[in-house]
Amino acid sequence: MNNCGNHSKCKKEAIKNADEFCSKKGLRLTAIRKKVLEIIWESHNPMKAYSILQKLKGVGSEKPPTVYRALNFLIDNRLIHKLSSQQSYVGCEHANTHDQCYFLSCTECGDITECCSNELDNAFSKTVKKAKFNQSNVVCEISGICSTCS
């Protein structure tokens, strides 16, 4: 997600949007949830739960169940994404503006690019409907080599 021109501004905007979204929806963005979100937004690189736990040392909320509950809240409210292939988490670049996100993952540099596609949304929806499947989440990750590395 190297398409960010000013990461400090990008991070502040993500936290502000999360605050506003939770307030509007009557959700509690507790101190631990906010801190986990801030840690994830320290960069655009995916972050593993263990790294988040390490960064919370000394804050008083470094217990794994607490962190996983915070991560689940952030995922459920589409403020972050879980990259299943890497067992890591990344901030949503445009939280709550769409139903699905798709990711291009460079195996050389580790860069992750978040993408949205109405065509893919429609294809997944048709597939799910045809199978009479009760969908809870869609994660699509494409691994390869980005243009910078190739």
Amount of helix: 40-55%
Count of strand segments: 6
Summarize the main sheet.
3 strands, antiparallel
Shape: globular
State the oligomer. Answer: single chain
Enter the CATH topology name of the largest domain: Arc Repressor Mutant, subunit A
SSE pattern: HHEHHEEEEHE
Q: How many separate domains make up the residues? A: 2
Give the strand content. Answer: 15-25%
Please write the CATH class name of the largest domain: Mainly Alpha
Name the CATH homologous superfamily of the largest domain.
Winged helix-like DNA-binding domain superfamily/Winged helix DNA-binding domain
CATH architecture of the largest domain: Orthogonal Bundle
Structural features, described:
With 150 residues, the protein is of the alpha+beta class. It folds into two domains: 7-91, Orthogonal Bundle (Arc Repressor Mutant, subunit A), CATH 1.10.10; 102-144, 2-Layer Sandwich (Dna Ligase, domain 1). The chain contains five helices and six strands. The chain has helices at 7-25, 31-40, 49-55, 64-76, 118-130; strands at residues 47-48, 80-83, 88-91, 102-106, 112-115, 140-144. The radius of gyration is 16 Å and the shape is globular. The mean pLDDT is 87.
